[in-house]
Specification:
Blueprint: H1 6-44, H2 57-85, H3 92-98, H4 103-130, H5 139-160, H6 171-199, H7 202-205, H8 214-227, H9 234-242, H10 245-259, H11 264-298, E1 305-309, E2 319-321, E3 326-330
Antiparallel strand pairs: 1-3, 2-3
């Protein structure tokens, strides 16, 4: 879509990223409430969980990710005021958004890269834990993470030398941007595929190859579930929330739009930090929900009882007499 200008794209970015950030902030508040509740139970000695998780690597990573995503969103919002308030009307905003060497643009890309790094690190950590702490399974994503850092540093440095005669689609910028896209996509696709294979039942794993595309796998698994008598798509939902399928989709869309030379890639790119945060919080909230359900399932059901004197009539209610001159009234739901 060559008719999408940089000014239009940046205005759309503010709206879409604000919407996604609002969803992310609500989910972050829920996750924080869950963590604080578990921490209080741990301090009171009534926690069903073995330890507090406020200072765990995942919690610290989630907090750092929230900071980077928030700063990235604030920079995009502040750039609107800078473009329309501190610049003259007319071509001023267009010139401002065309200057990729501006300090706010450099900072924005820096926090964007930091969000990618933290999000990929959390995803790799989850894959490592789910796989039973096998180091061999995370070798490839660690290599792509190092590649992401390398290409990101090169891209930010190249942006600092940007001039009015340059374009983000020139070869000097294309190699760094393409490298960032490919590294993010490889990390997300690899971890998604591995988590999918780990999450599948053993009888379903034998019917699929490790090299099958993740989306074909999800489609084929949904068909296989029917043959095994599973009527719901709970497994598919768990695979989607536990993996980076959402982030992988955005990464692929950004790569395609950038290679096509469309300014839509700026919209997708600036929305990706919030998507990284949402993907991470989907895992955290789903895990807490599972732990809560497991806790409820392990707690035996206690029928509420009410002790009353023998001389009080309770009609046809189910009662039992005790040796202490009291009747027990069983309160069934």
């Amino acid at each position: 879509m060559s008719d999408v200008t940089l000014l239009t794209a940046n205005l759309v970015i503010v709206v879409l990223e604000s919407f996604l950030y609002g969803i992310y902030a609500i989910m972050a508040s829920c996750a924080l409430y869950f963590m604080v509740s578990r921490h209080r139970e741990h301090l009171n000695g009534t926690s069903w969980f073995p330890r507090s998780n406020l200072l765990s690597p995942v919690a610290l990573g989630a907090q750092a990710l929230f900071i980077t995503v928030s700063v990235h969103w604030l920079l995009n919002v502040s750039r609107v005021f800078v473009a329309f308030h501190h610049w003259d009307d007319g071509p001023g905003p267009r010139i401002f958004y065309s200057n990729f060497s501006h300090i706010t643009e450099i900072l924005k890309y820096g926090f964007l890269v930091a969000s990618f790094m933290i999000g990929d690190s959390l995803l790799i950590h989850r894959l490592w834990v789910v796989s039973g702490f096998r180091p061999g399974i995370i070798v490839f994503p660690i290599i792509t993470l190092i590649g992401l850092l390398t290409f990101s540093v090169g891209l930010i440095y190249q942006l600092s030398t940007y001039t009015s005669n340059d374009s983000m689609f020139q070869a000097a910028y294309r190699r760094w941007t393409t490298g960032v896209c490919i590294c993010c996509l490889c990390t997300a696709a690899y971890t998604t595929g591995k988590l999918c294979l780990i999450a599948l039942p053993h009888r379903l794993k034998s019917t699929h190859s490790c090299k099958v595309c993740i989306w074909y796998k999800l489609w084929s698994v949904s068909r296989a579930l029917e043959s095994f008598g599973v009527t719901s798509l709970t497994t598919i939902v768990r695979i989607f929330t536990d993996s980076a399928a959402l982030f992988a989709t955005f990464s692929l869309f950004h790569l395609v739009s950038y290679q096509c030379g469309s300014n839509i890639q700026f919209i997708v790119l600036d929305c990706m930090p919030a998507v990284v945060g949402i993907s991470n919080l989907l895992v955290q909230i789903r895990l807490h929900w599972d732990l809560t359900q497991k806790r409820a399932a392990s707690t035996p059901f206690m029928t509420p009882q009410l002790r009353i004197p023998l001389d009080i009539s309770v009609g046809d209610s189910q009662v039992g007499s005790g040796s202490d001159g009291m009747k027990t009234l069983y309160l069934h739901p």
